[in-house]
Amino acid sequence: MAAMPYYLTDFWLLTGLFAMAAALGAIGLNILSGTTGQLSLGHAFFLAVGAYGYMFFSGESGRSGTHDINGLGLPPTVALVLAVLFAGVVGGIFSPISGRLRGMYLGIATLALVFIGEHVMINAHSVTGGYNGRAAEPMEFFGFTLSERDPDELKVLGVEFGAYERLWYLALVLLVVGILLARNLLRGRPGRALGAVRDSEIAAAVMGVPVARYRSMAFVVSSMYAGLAGVLLALIFGRVIPEYFGLALSIDYLAMIVIGGLGSVGGAVAGAVFVTVLPQLFAHYAASLPLVVESGGDGVGPTEAARYLYGAAIVLVLLFAPGGLAGLARRRPRAPKPSARVPARSWSRFRSRSQEPQGAVS
């Protein structure tokens, strides 16, 4: 992964960046839905909170079009941390509702967050910029800009490092840290408690697990992962518009964790790569694929074809591989059954011993 910027073109680097951002968000949703069993259709809302939170904390106050834009002008690294924490706070505010609702009722409540978020993003012009969105400040570390596309300033081993190459390593570090934190969380006592809450809340409460606290904790952790993914998306896009954070994005994240495998960190990453990379591949190779036309033509476009394909993948996974891609990876070939036939040599030895006197046998 660290060597890919030296060999890949901008198209593949951009596709990889979107996949890594989606993987972070999918890990968070898998902790909430796959491990704890809480259905959420509002994951896109928390991605928007992270993205616009970063732009507000790092952006300067000024004017964009016909509206004034407000911002705190903090350093981008501080803004990233505050945006993630802010997403966790918003998830904590919603967590009492999640503690009272179950199943489909919780899904409908989180779905309301998406519609509320769209209304706020369109009308809060001073924070979000309205329909036209808002530009994201480039990430900086000690004066080194990661998002500024000026390849003449930096060359490594003869390779020009522009915006995508620089952002690649930031996304890779964030993804590795996110995977390690999630694995440690799920393998420890909190992970066992979350699994117990998913299997049976009554049994978990009998064993001494504070169910309400762990349900709230799962929502906060999931929101923070989504906020981090939203910050990374803002850096990749450079300008974020409200239209991107709609219901379709939440459905995509549900598809990621179902295809990858519920409750598995590696499965969430694999599902995110599958769902994110597939439309890009269809769009890139649309002219070479049968029954698929280029965007704008008469017929099935690359985006629609990709949705049909991973929609069919969800059905196939539910029917034949409930564990998802992670379950297929863990599946091992069955060991051959031992033969029920007793070897002749062993049988003859048993007969000879059984015919001896009882004392000799003892």
From TrEMBL:
User: Where mainly found?
Assistant: membrane
Kindly list the places in or outside the cell where this protein is found, as annotated in its UniProt entry. Answer: Cell membrane
Q: Where is this region: Disordered?
A: 330-362
- Which Pfam families does the record match to this protein? BPD_transp_2 (PF02653)
Which residues are the signal sequence here?
A: none
Q: Membrane-crossing residues?
A: 12-32, 39-57, 77-97, 104-122, 167-186, 217-238, 308-329
Membrane topology term reads: Multi-pass membrane protein
Q: Which UniProt keywords apply?
A: Cell membrane, Membrane, Transmembrane, Transmembrane helix
Protein's name in the database:
Branched-chain amino acid ABC transporter permease
